[in-house]
Amino acid sequence: MKHIPRKRFGQNFLTDQLVLSQIIRAIDPRPADTMVEIGPGLAAMTSLLLEGLPHMHVVELDRDLVVRLKKTFPADKLTIHEGDALKFDFRTIPVPEGQKLRVVGNLPYNISSPLLFHLAELADVVSDQHFMLQKEVVERMVAEPGSKAYGRLSVMLQWRYHMELLFVVPPDAFDPPPKVDSAIVRMIPKRDMLDCRQADLEAVVTKAFSQRRKVIRNCLAGMFNEMELQEAGVDPQARPETVGLEQYIALTRLYSLRHAGSQD
């Protein structure tokens, strides 16, 4: 029976075999990998991955697709975790000592940003991530300071990952075709991540980009004075999208120190 894609799950199934082959080459699965796929859907990518893997895990929310997956793959080849990837604890997936998870998926566009932030909390147990996302989202993820795409998502993810837009996927590669281009992104967790408190970085960056058209002195008014901005290497007259990751980290450390002092 043909599965009808469900809008509430953001389902657009990748069907182009050339694109699928290109993605598998980019992922380059190895037999010893512990691989987990988010949203396997009709298992187009799952099937190809399992040609190079003895076993893998998938996280799927759609009950009808879970039934289909169970009928298609034996349990010793595919472990199915039924549920919402936003709530799933990926740390529960068993990984051999000395290894880390590899995460892949065609992520639903309607939950892509919160899912990326959820996964960022696992960076210490992940070796790499390969995702299909809306092209505009990937461009924001990898954007450099000074570009219009650079913002909160860029800073928060670039703090944790080395990221690369690998290639663009057109709408006609999907069923049903989305209204936008997609792109494949490679995300490799940083092992030399700049030290700061995530919640404080989030607070600083969110406030900084809340009024993009204003200069950063005005955006961060009440959080930092002009002298503190200068001490962090930030031009008070600069716009938020021109301030680099290291400067946001410097501001966050200052914010954390002051916060710690106020709590004593």
TrEMBL record:
The lineage of its organism: Bacteria, Pseudomonadati, Pseudomonadota, Betaproteobacteria, Burkholderiales. Residues 19-191 form the Ribosomal RNA adenine methylase transferase N-terminal domain. GO terms for molecular function: 16S rRNA (adenine(1518)-N(6)/adenine(1519)-N(6))-dimethyltransferase activity; RNA binding. It is an enzyme of class 2 (transferase). The keyword rRNA-binding does not apply. This is Ribosomal RNA small subunit methyltransferase A. Keywords: Cytoplasm, Methyltransferase, RNA-binding, rRNA processing, S-adenosyl-L-methionine, Transferase. The gene is rsmA. S-adenosyl-L-methionine binds at N12, L14, G39, E60, D84, N106. It comes from Undibacterium rugosum. InterPro entries: KsgA/Erm, rRNA_Ade_diMease-like_C, rRNA_Ade_Mease_Trfase_CS, rRNA_Ade_methylase_Trfase_N, rRNA_adenine_dimethylase, SAM-dependent_MTases_sf. It catalyses: adenosine(1518)/adenosine(1519) in 16S rRNA + 4 S-adenosyl-L-methionine = N(6)-dimethyladenosine(1518)/N(6)-dimethyladenosine(1519) in 16S rRNA + 4 S-adenosyl-L-homocysteine + 4 H(+). Its EC number is 2.1.1.182.
